[in-house]
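Data availability (excerpt). The following record was deposited with the supplementary files.
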Amino acid sequence: MAKLLLIAAGGTGGHMFPAQALAEAMLARGWRVKLSTDDRGARYAGGFPAEVTVERVASATFARGGVAAKLMVPFRILGGVLGAVVSQLRDRPAIVVGFGGYPSIPALSAAWLLRRPRMIHEQNGVLGRVNQLFARRVHKVACGTWPTALPAGVTGEPTGNPVRQSVLDRAAAPYIPPGDYPMSMLVIGGSQGARILSDVVPAAVALLPDGLRGNLRIAHQARDEDGARAAAAYEAAGVRAEIAPFFSDIPRRLSEAQLVISRSGASSVADISVIGRPSILIPFAAATGDHQTANARGLLDAAAAVVLPEKALDAALLAGHIAAILDDPHKAETMARAALGEGKPDATARLVALVEDLGGDTE
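Predicted structure:
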């Protein structure tokens, strides 16, 4: 029977998209793949190949809920660990790979207890809480952003962040520079902290010169509670805008965009780099360890992106940067090429090599 890879990942796109990329690659190499996640993560499971078995585990986070809910967290996690031990005794995965998030705790804990080969992949330049916990308890630490701040004595393997096949299909897509014709601008805010973009970006667009503003076609990812407000602001500015809480075709929209305004989550930075687009990045100020600023550093240093701290963000400042890029085709093209130079389309292959090296000889 084919070897089994058990992927454990939390319930955000930042964890699930690279996990999906690894799943796609390992299935193509003849492995079986199981995904261990919670109810939040299961929302992303529809993007995984149908051959991937999805196992929902009991997990919880200390970040949400009242006192009673927080008191129950250790018991829910313990229940998840016990269930994962039983599952791994039955299925005997060749390797367990964790991508972070509380839902990865049960599978990684069970692998540690059962002495199964195990590794983690950290997408950001700073380890998340769960990966920090397991960094010394796994055989390999793969790093999506390099350098990554690691605990003393822990050695990381720089792999880059795997991107989904739908992103690879549009890798290095030809860039159409801005000009006096309809232009696409994509605004993506990640799974959290997007409210400020829904307030500031429409206000900034309203400040643009009439000619530039009239050429813009905007796709803006906004929370349900913010969408109507953002839509009204764009309409008042006379700008065509498509507003949705989630776009399932981000790779296509990225490839068609003249400019991207985004949080600097690891997956967003990886997608922007592999496709190669100029961007204005606004790191999420409340990100653990300010890891989104670390994620943006490579594109900033390469002059592929403008990075604006959230505390300094206002409509006039943002409007100035949008105009500086879209009014200068040479600058925009240069930024697009520089972004492409930071991309790592082989990140999945590097991660696959680590997985097969660590789990390839397991019976």
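Summary of structural features: The mean pLDDT is 92.
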